[in-house]
């Protein structure tokens, strides 16, 4: 009887030990699969981030080039505006000189007619 009880206990212990490694293997496989899924998701996130960096870099280069072109255009327009302002100032000075000459000529015409006696 003791032999039978010992035999049953040994069989139960061996069965318990045999079952435990199978569960451990399944748990390790599940953990491995979850880890692989997380790694795959992280890789896809990395790819999206790299793509965004590439797009942002292209956008930045384009905006910088546009800014430099606009700045060059603005500098050219500023020079043109300065030249036009100088022409305007010169034209105003010329107009003022012409107006002064005109006023002097009109005054000269008016003066002899007022100061000269009328002939009869």
Give an overview of the whole structure:
- The chain is mainly α.
- It is 95% helix and 0% strand.
- It contains 1 helix and no strands.
Q: What letter string, H or E per element, gives the SSE order?
A: H
Rg over CA atoms, rounded to whole Å, is 51 Å
Number of strands: 0
Structural class: mainly alpha
Distance linking N and C termini: 177 Å
Shape: rod-shaped
Number of helices: 1
* Percent of residues in beta strands: under 5%
Low-confidence stretches: none
Main sheet properties: none
Helix content: over 70%
Mean pLDDT: 86
Task: Briefly say what this structure is.
It is built from 1 helix and no strands. It has 120 residues and is mainly alpha-helical. The model has no long low-confidence stretch (mean pLDDT 86).
Helices and strands in order, then pairings?
Elements: H1 2-115
Q: Which properties best describe this structure?
A:
120 residues, 1 helix, 0% strand, mainly alpha
